[in-house]
Write a structure and sequence with these properties.
Layout (H helix, E strand, L loop, with lengths): L11 H13 L6 H12 L3 H14 L4 H13 L7 H16 L6 H28 L9 H13 L1 H4 L3 H10 L7 H24 L10 H18 L6 H18 L6 H5 L1 H7 L7 H17 L6 H16 L7 H17 L1 H12 L4 H17 L8 H9 L7 H16 L5 H16 L24 H18 L1 H4 L12 H12 L4 H15 L1 H4 L4 H16 L8 H19 L2 H14 L8 H16 L3 H14 L5 H14 L4 H17 L5 H10 L1 H19 L2 H4 L3 H16 L1 E2 L2 E2 L5 H19 L12 H13 L10 H13 L7 H15 L5 H7 L3 H28 L3 H12 L7 H26 L6 H8 L8 H18 L8 H14 L3 H16 L7 H14 L2 H18 L7 H12 L5 H17 L1 H9 L7 H11 L5 H19 L7 H4 L4 H16 L3 H21 L27 H27 L2 H6 L4 H15 L4 H7 L8 H14 L4 H4 L3 H11 L5 H12 L1 H4 L8 H11 L6 H16 L3 H4 L2 H10 L7 H17 L5 H10 L1 H6 L6 H12 L13 H11 L1
Antiparallel strand pairs: 1-2
Helix pairs in contact: 1-2, 1-3, 2-3, 2-4, 3-4, 3-5, 4-6, 5-6, 6-7, 7-10, 9-11, 10-12, 11-12, 12-15, 15-17, 16-17, 17-18, 17-19, 18-19, 18-20, 19-21, 20-22, 21-22, 22-23, 23-26, 25-26, 25-30, 26-28, 28-29, 29-31, 30-31, 31-33, 32-33, 32-34, 33-36, 34-36, 36-38, 36-39, 38-39, 39-41, ...
Amino acid sequence: MNKFVSEQEVTDRDVYNEVVSLLAHMDDQDKDKSALRIAFIAETKLAIVVTVLLEKLQQDEQNRVDIYCVLEKVLQQDTGDLERGLLNKTITLALNHMRETQEATNEVKVAASNTLVTLASCYFDHVMSELLCHLKPPKLPEEFIFVTLGNLSSAYALKCIPVVRITLNAMFSVLEFVNDSRMRQAFCGVLEKWSRAVKLFLTNWEKCSFPRVGKLRLCNHFFPIYSHVTSNWLTCEELELKQAIIKALGPMMSLLLHKEEYQDQIFEPISWLLEQYKEDAHVFHITKSLSQLLEVSGEYKIPLPKGKFQAICSALHNQICSQAKPLSTENHAELVHCIILLARSSPEDLIAFLHSQLTIKSEAVCVMSLNLLRAIVDADLPKTGDKKCLIVKAVKSTLGDQNATVRKAVLHFIRRLLSSESVENCAAWDMVAHVFMEFSVSTSKPVLWPRLLEYVVPAQYTGTLKPLCRCLRELAEKKQQEGEEAACLDYGGSVKLPTPQGLLARLLVVASSPYAGEGHGCAALQLLKALHQNIHAAVGEMWVVKIPSLLQYIEGNTENSLDHARWEHMLLQFLRTSLEMIDDSAWSRQISLELSQQMASYTSPSHEKSFLYKALGTSLAVCQDLVHVKSQLHKFLTRADYMEVPERQGVISILALSAESHLDLTLNVLQEFGAAMSKVKISGFISRLKDYHHGKRGKTRSTLMLTYSSVAVHAPKDQFLSRVEADITGNILLHYRASCQVLGITVANKDMDLKLTLIHNVMEISCALLETRDSQEFEFSYKLELLGYMLDFIKKEPLHSLASPVRYMAILAIGHLSKLKPSLTLEENRELLDQCFKSLFPLPPLEMMKKEGETAKDALLIQSLYVRSLEALGKLMETLLEEEPTADWFQEMFELLATWFSSGKEWERERTLQASTQLLTAYQETVHSTTQETFNQFGSLIGRIAPYSCDSLAMSRQWVVDCISCLLSMQGQPMNLGSAEEELNCLREELTTAPDPEALFQASSKMARVVSEYFPSKQATDFIEATMDSMLSASPTCATAAGLWLKIILQECGDAMLDEVPTILDIIYSHMSNIQEGSLRRFLLEAVSILAHHHLEAVISSLLSKRLPMDSDTTELWRSLGGDPLLATQVLQVLIEKIKTSTSQEGSVTSETETDRHLAAAEPLSATCAISEVVSALQSRKAVQELLPELFPVLLQQVSRTLGQKMPLPVISSQEPFRKDRQHTEGNPCRFSVQALESVLFKVGNAKLVRPLREQGTWILLENPQTHHEGVCLLVSVLLRSGLITPEIIQSLLPWVNSPTENYRVTGTAFFAQLMSDPMLREKKFLKSVLHILAERSQDRNSIVRQMAVRGLGNIVNGAPEKVKKHKKILLDILIGALHDIFSSEVIGESMKALAKVLKELKEKDIGSSFRDLTQQIRTYFDDEDDALRSMAFVLFGILAQLTKKKWKAYFTEQVRKSWVTLLLHLQDPNLEVSTVFVPVCLCTPGPCLPRTEERPQLCLVKQLSSV
């Protein structure tokens, strides 16, 4: 049977047999092939293969190692599918073989251990669990259990982390049983590998799937074992155990060093470690352990104890320098690494140690120390960078050593030092000086002078320039000491020296970058000064003065602080002055050629080449050879590669600087070149398109445009104005228009570079014009055209991104142009500014725009453009203010800006607030600081800006603080601001870090209180108007802030706002219809209440002026005052006085028209309505009860006063819209008065009092002139029952009955008429006076008054019946007299009713002679048409019948006979009421005339009359 059968044909039995066969023949054939075949079979038949292998492991003791190797390969194919039984069997078998003491060899144990490690790849937890089971005391641990644990951590470091605690605790539990040397070695191996695993986890914890475990917690598990090992095992003698301990100590010490409390114990074994260097041990492991310790010490800045540091330094240095035993490469590298780690943690101490070693007279020690110092320099550690001076100082101590090996080591050090970064100047120079000394020490010939000059000009030697220049300077100075002749250079000698022009050009170029090459700029200038007589005799004196000043400027700055533009200008001015002093055209011509030649030595772009262009332009400006100048200018114009930016810029620099002395020549050259370029025709349509798209011609035109404007900047000011328009600006626009053409057709300019070029032209020309002496008189004719271009550029910039500088540079250019004549109108400036706002504010948020950038550099560029754009806008606003420094223009600008405050986008508001800060600052600096006028815009600006102190963006809130600070500075100039600025700074921090809106509101409120100290009360209306607008347009949070500011300013400054109260209330009222949100309306209501606390009379007067009937807003304002418990009573008192005052003035009015009498007075009616609203809002009943004696008379009087009147004409407020139809307002004034009275009584007595009044229709009766008196009577009767009528009320109403006003008399008389029915009048001793008043009113011309007077006299029977007889005469006279009233049947009827009541209280004798008149008068009404009178007459007749006794019996009987027929007829009276009254009263009343009978009334009447 073929043993390599295909997989498809293998059955389980065949597999079993094949594996058995392969294992049986492993000795005869290639073991690897058999193992591979078995592994291949296991891919599909894992369980069978493993089963066979486990059987063979038990049976075949001889080949167990090979079988384990096969099993290991098989298990490598496992993906976690092994059956649980086979898994457990495999683990158990391997553990048993590992633990066998005699039978199993080490090879078997190793193989079994490796198998378990492989098995743990898929079954880590199972393997680990079984291993830990064998680490339980008192069971003796096995060596290979430890070996396997160590191997597991090496293979699966991160998997071991969750079981670190369990494993180490188990190891610690068996530690006392680990006594054997081999066992201890294995134990240390576990410690070493598990420490490394933990360290690996701490550096790669983010890759783990389980939660991060703290490093300090992990340290805690190692420390007990570490303490035991270091305390008990370090005294061992076995070399192999020592090696194991050393290898374990390093990882454990580096791990435990993280915990501060362990550090002292961790450092203790260092001495033992260092002692092991003396043993015959593998020293690499010692060094490695130290390295691990030092790495952690340096990384976490854990200082080594001083003694330990020195001991480590000495031990490591001795190892490196020791010649007793050669070092292995790996140990040497590790020793040097340790030295570098020591340098990282404590550089000064290490350098001091190595310095001390350099003093030892030992070549090996010295060389090794130098090599270590070189290694430290080469490492360029952060802490050693600034310690290189100390290193150089140490090395300098060896410079005098003549030992060749030492000298070589020094030179190697110098080479490394000079090639490293951040080398101090002194260090580099001292080392290079030593090199030169070494070079010339063997000869006395002048080998350096002047040969070193050959290396000055060539650019490839730039790196050596500093020491080279210093060396040459010293040599030159030495030659000068020898004499002038010795110092002069021999240009005709064997040494090919550079020309004086070449030296000057080269050294100036080097000086243009003074801090490059370790500061070779100073060295170049110093050399230039030393060579002055070899450059030119004419410059000596000037250079002696000028060069030191240049050096001083460099030394006074740093690379970061140096103003490079100014420095270049100083060098160019130095060159120009030198050439002017030389005053030699040939010399100047030669230096220009030299400068031109040296350009080829520098890369492009480079700072040096840029300076060369400028230096060339300067030399041409000085050169008087115009032919040469023109040729040079033409040469650079024609040869330049305009596709390269540096060359374009170089051409511009040359021509611009040459124009300083040759303006006409330069302009002519430019004109000629431009004309020649325009004449060049490109044939063919395709070729012309290629020329346009490749852009060469466009770049050339752009360069010419920039050259023209740069020429304008450098042109002599006395020649500039005559050339600026035609020769400069005109040519710029000519090239611009030509650049905007494609195939001869003008197209829209979309070329950003071309736009930027024109913008740059505009700025440079504008600046140049402003610098001329006559700029204010010069009318620049191109101004409007250029402004048009700039505005067009801004409009076409996209509003969704900020990718180019066109926007901000165009704004800057507009600012420059705005300063030129002719001046723009304010409307033109407004439109210009508006367009700039529209271009900047709508841009997306900065962070969003930054995300559009592809790289971090792009994001930084966008941020820079954004910042510059807003800065440019600020400068533009400042410029426009400077041109028109007036408060009105400032207000115009701010109003234009303020339209953006209401934007719903927070970033737009933030930009607006930033611009507001810029505008305010500009106004303060340009206008306010010069005029010192009163700042009248303070209030309105605070109102506009302050609410945004609660904006959603922290940056917006900061801008608000800046705005307010600026406003306070202007407002507070005459005053001392005191600590206001400090408070604002603190509030800025609070506003920036506020965690929630509530914190924002608190900080904003504090700021409002700061501002209130300087708030001008005369600007209160402006402030409130602006604040109201902010509440309407701002976000909810900012609107709330506006309300808070409104409240606080009124609270703190309201006392001084008396004159502004009407206007303030008009503003608040006019905005209430638009502000409907509840919380915001509360601010308005609170504002009115606050104002009322300060000026109650003024507030009430203003509110009373509102139109009637009250609208909901006015009603709400009155109720807000009523809702304030501190105000409500005062408000009611003032309103009462308002009504009283109006009433008192009413009597003094003599000229009152008929119309006026029929119109209700506006103010008292408004006050009445106000009382109604205030009372309804009052929470306290007691306050109204206390005021009732005043309120009731006033309101009742107002009811009486408005009875029958119409509404007054509306008053038009200044804040209300004008109404053409100023007609009577709808409504019933009396009804309003009645409602007010009802509100007061409801508040006093609640529903129990008001309900009967409503049920009886009292209020309806009161407001009707025909029934008013009845309503008064009903009202008084209810009030009397409730005990609300007080003497004060009575006293208040007494004057009414004698008032000339009929309504008052009616109301007053009705009041007292009803009051007469209550005992109160008698009790309060008002009866007599009231009775007298009623007697008088009974004769009043008004019938209702007479009626009420008669009723009141009759009511005495109810109120004081005992007083009827006392006052019988006056009562009967008046009441009987009233029966004769020919004008009012109501008076007669009321008199009858009163007589009926009075007569019941009298006897026959009390009536006296009045009986006759009374009887006769009553009879006259038996036939009256008025049913009520007939009825009442019969009632009264019956009462008289009852009274008749003796004296008047005969007379009364006679009167009955006379009325016989009438009485009989009225038994059948058509009015049933009359007949029913007549019968019981007249016929059934017992008396002398008609006795009572039980018969039918009709029969009784007949009988009685018949008997008579």
